[in-house]
Every structure is written in structure tokens, then in C-alpha cells.
Amino acid sequence: MTERDWQHDVLRDLGLLDTGLVLLTPHPPTAPLVPPPSVPAPPSPSPTALSSGSRPAGQRQATAQFQRPSLLGAALQAEPPEQPVTEASAGWGLPQPQKPHELAQQPEPPQAPLASVDWSAATHQTFTPERTAATASPPAPASSPPTPAQRPSMHQRPVPGPSADEMVRRVRHGDSTVRRLGHGMRRIVGASAAGDVRDTSRLAERMNHAVPSCRRIVVTSIRGGAGKSSITALVAEVIREHRTDRVAAVDADPGLGSLAPRLGIRPTRSLRDLAAARPTTFEETASYLTRTPGGLWVLAASGHGSVGADLDFETFHAALGRLGRYFSTTVVDCGAGLVSPLHRDILNAAHAQIFVAPATGDGTLSARSAIDWFARNGHADLLARTVIVLVSHTPVPDTDLALAQRLLGGAGQSVVIIPFDRHLAAGASIASGLLSTSTREAATRIADEAFTLSLAGGSV
């Protein structure tokens, strides 16, 4: 019987051939092998016994012998033996098992000395594949946690996105083509051209009236979405067009106001920045404002298109105090609402008011309620210097606008209706050349009346 046949019999008796495990000695024995006596081989375990986890006694004994030599296999992997090994033993490096009846009869074959193995140290150290591989190549250093400068900050300035103009697929004129042709023919054939020139001259004369101090015209509404920012932009542009000195539009919306997008600008500094600074010249003050292509100065409520924090009247008053030395008129876009402490203080310091409401039945009734609130809460004087504006958001309104004018104008206030304008309805920046004729006429009337009423407000 050859050595391989004997090993095959032992592994078969132990039931290791079925599991695919091959265990061979790393060094061949020096003494010739003696055939074992005729002892009946232990029965092979059945598949049922293997699946249930029970093993024969001989297999348990052989398994106990293999626990310590596993350290020898790791040592052989670190330093190759002096004698050649077979192909199977090179992968495992474990000694050859013996049958139980031969353990007492045959002495253990001598092993080649392993001078490089320190068993005292090996018994206290577990050799794992990870630790063995670490001796060949050091592991990559773990990524260190990000420093505070690398972590994203919640206070970083937002990345600028697309502008409101870039969101509009098509920029249309406020008037339809047919209506524009009709207005052009009336200018050519009609006799109203001379009257338009006279009206424009009178308007410019009233707009250029000397002011005792910077006039504050506040634009308010009881709810959002009424068109307040659009009216602020229109009125400020009309006043700027007819005056020869400086005019500013101020966004006092404590949230995210719409005045800057309607004027087509992206401010980088805000009203709070100007209030915290102490500019001594106009050039220093102008660095906190943004100027439109038409020449209107704009003071935004927040910079970089971000949502601002709560605004108090002290901050608002300090910022407008910086502008009062260099500007003749400021048109203030207030946030929606009337009853907050900020609104009350702004109304107390206003020279004139433009109250905006939707041109609907509900908008008319809310405007009527606001008029009663002004009269009952100590703003009756300001109510006499108020222009009421109804903005149409649909081409064909279902509300009786003539009845709305009579209902809101009963206390002597002027009521102006802004008709539906396709250019305003797009929500992009306002271009005066694309406004409808009726929108420009209504905006001019609102600016004229509001500025004239502000002159009667004294030096508040």
C-alpha cells in the first residue's frame, strides 16, 4: 500500500473526503510506513448524521488535534519550510492525521526544526488573513473626519439659480397685436397727440416739485399675491422717469420679496447691511444698493436671493435714514399684512400709501375691511393720503369693477384699476416697452396721485 492510498483510507474513515477537505503532512516521514493491523475500520457517518451535526469519536479526536497545528500553518506561510512540500500541503500546511489505534503504537515522526517560530508568542496571538496580509502591505490610512472648513455650512451663500426671465418661455407684449395696431392708428389719425404732450408736461412739472424731505410712499396689501411688488416697481419707475434727482425702491418684506426679480436685478447686499454700516458719502451708501439699467436705485431686503430673517422697525428706520440724505423719493414695498408692529411703525412714518388688492369680489371686500381698520386704528390721516389699486389677474374678470370702485371710493379715496396685462402676468422682470397702453396709463396715474398726496404729508 502506498502512502497516498493510506492517507486516502484515513480521510475516508474520518468522513473528510465528502466535505472536500484535504489534509496532508507538510513533511514526509523519515521511517518507512508499516501497514496497520487488520482492525475493522470505523463506520463512515451517514449523510443524516452529518447534517444533524453529530460526528464519530475518531473524527472529534482528530479535530481536536488540528486546533494547535493551525498556528503552524500560518507560520509556514510566513517562512517557507526547508524541505519541499506537495501541492496540496502548500495550501494548508497541516500535519498528517493518524488513526486512533496507531497513536499509541507508532512514535510521532520527527519534524524539521522551525527556528523562526516562537510558540510562546504564537499562543497569545491570533493569526487571521487580515493580519497576515498586513505584514505584506500596510493598510491604507483611514480617511480622517472632515475639518470644520470642509464641512458644508448652513450659513453659506446659496448658489445663484436661474433668473425669473430665464424661467419664462416666451416674452409677450401686454397688448395683443390687434390692440397695438389700433393704438398706433389713433395716434396717427386722431387729434389726441397734442393733448398727450400737454398731459406729459403737466405730469413732469408735478413730479419735479421740490420736497421738504425724502418722501416715503408705502405700498401695502392685506394678503400676498395681490400684485404689490409689481405696483411698487411700476410706480418707482414712473417717478424716476419724471424726476431729475435720485429715486429709490426699497424692499421691506421680511421674507423673500419679489421686488428685485420684478426689476430684473440680483442684489448682493441688503437693507440690514446698510443699517449696520455707517456710510459718510453717497458713494459708500450706493455700494449697498443695486441700480437698474433705467437708473432706479434698489435696496433689497436680503442679498443673494436668500430668505431673510425678521425685520424690526429700528433696522428699517436706520437704513432709510441713510437714504434720506441723498434721495428725494423712496417707494417702499411692505410685506403682506397690516397689524404687525413693523407695519404699524412703517405706516406711522409714511407720507402716502398705495393699497393693493385683487380685482375680485373677495379682494374688494378685503380692501373695504382694510379701510375700516385704518379708520379705527389711528390711521385716518394716512387714509386720506391713500390710493387704492385693484389688479386684474384674468383677461375677463367676473367682478363688477364699476361697483367695486364705487364701494371703495365712498370715503373719498382714489381707486385705480390695473387691467390684465400679459407681460405682468408672466412674472418676469418688467420692461416698460412691453407693457400695455392701459397699464402704463394706470401706473402713471397712480404715481402722480401718490406723489402729490405725499407732498401734503408734511415732514413726517
TrEMBL record:
Residues 217-300 form the CobQ/CobB/MinD/ParA nucleotide binding domain. Residues 26-46, 138-149 have a biased composition (Pro residues). GO terms for biological process: negative regulation of cell division. Pfam families: CbiA (PF01656). One of its GO terms (cellular component) is cytoplasmic side of plasma membrane. Residues 25-114, 130-167 are annotated as: Disordered. GO terms for molecular function: ATP binding; ATP hydrolysis activity. Transmembrane segments: none annotated. InterPro entries: CobQ/CobB/MinD/ParA_Nub-bd_dom, P-loop_NTPase, ParA/MinD_ATPase. This is CobQ/CobB/MinD/ParA nucleotide binding domain-containing protein.
